[in-house]
Design goal:
Layout: E1 4-6, E2 15-17, H1 24-31, H2 34-40, E3 44-47, H3 56-59, H4 69-72, E4 74-75, H5 76-80, H6 94-118, E5 124-136, E6 153-160, E7 166-170, H7 174-181, H8 191-201, E8 217-221, E9 226-229, E10 236-251, H9 263-266
Parallel strand pairs: 2-3
Antiparallel strand pairs: 1-8, 3-9, 4-5, 5-10, 6-9, 6-10, 7-8, 7-10
Length: 277
């Protein structure tokens, strides 16, 4: 099964399907810095057959308790912690805990190293990894707001570790929203304030909208698919999903392909596509 995108003609196509490779280095060898250029302008990079093979027999037998906050999005450091109290809420057998930790370490390291291979010019300061092994239901369409130092960029990648597709929706680029609402982005002293403002005033049930009322694409993300997306530029929401691994690399902005590419410039400069789609 391959990822299928149901495109909305009223929203620009912000998906790029990458050819398959046996190693992460192969993606950079084929596409070079076009990967970073596309990502930095808000294109979602879809990898239908990434070089990740999970232990399905193990992973598909594990499910985090639904609505149990500490395990709804379990951080990698918590998985590897010597304190078994949290893990024993969903894995009772000590041997299975060890096996899960080994698999979590292998997959997490592979994704982090793979991202670094695809974006070799990025200087990665640190990484954060989350394992989301509980059912996700409809959220409001939103833009990511990262409460980190403004001199750090967060590069995010996701892997559908489940046997069912993950249903994901994306809206129009932030520049189009800004123009539609006639907002001067210069009134905000930082991009986080701009995205938080849009989340509060434009998206969501709090404004009397349901997700379907905001023009969007729907992505049916196949099991085993990995995707890389700039959630600060393109609004998104999950409609359904179960097991997923997310990796966030904290990148030094000046090492990006266009370090001057800010929210404010993007608000006035439409992104250009350079990869074959």
């Amino acid at each position: 099964m391959l990822t299928h995108i149901i495109l909305n003609p009223d929203v620009e196509d912000n998906f790029v399907h990458l050819n398959s490779h046996k190693t992460f280095d192969g993606y950079y060898q084929e596409y070079g810095d076009s990967l970073a250029q596309q990502y930095e302008t808000g294109q979602a990079l879809i990898m239908d057959a990434p070089p990740i093979k999970g232990n399905d027999e193990l992973l598909l037998d594990i499910e985090f308790p639904y609505n149990h906050r500490p395990t709804k999005k379990l951080k990698f450091r918590d998985i590897m912690s010597n304190d078994d109290a949290t893990i024993r809420k969903f894995i009772k057998n000590g041997t299975a805990i060890k096996a899960f930790r080994n698999e979590a370490s292998r997959v997490s390291n592979l994704m982090c190293k793979g991202l670094c291979a695809m974006f070799p010019k990025y200087n990665v300061l640190k990484s954060s990894i989350a394992w989301r092994f509980s059912v996700s239901h409809t959220e409001d369409l939103h833009l990511d707001v990262h409460s980190v130092n403004k001199d750090v960029h967060i590069l995010k990648a996701y892997w559908n570790a489940d046997s069912f597709p993950r249903i994901w929706q994306t809206g129009t680029h932030i520049e189009n929203i800004i123009k539609k609402l006639d907002i001067d982005p210069r009134r905000f002293d930082h991009s986080e304030h701009l995205t938080a403002y849009l989340n509060k005033t434009y998206f969501g049930l709090s404004q009397g909208r349901v997700p379907s009322e905001v023009p969007h694409h729907t992505a049916i993300i196949a099991p085993g698919t990995m995707w890389i997306a700039h959630g600060e530029l393109v609004p998104h929401t999950v409609m359904f999903g179960r097991r997923m691994v997310s990796v966030a690399l904290h990148v030094e902005p000046k090492t990006m392909i266009n370090p001057k590419l800010s929210f404010y410039r993007l608000a006035h400069t439409p992104p250009k596509s350079s990869l074959a789609q």
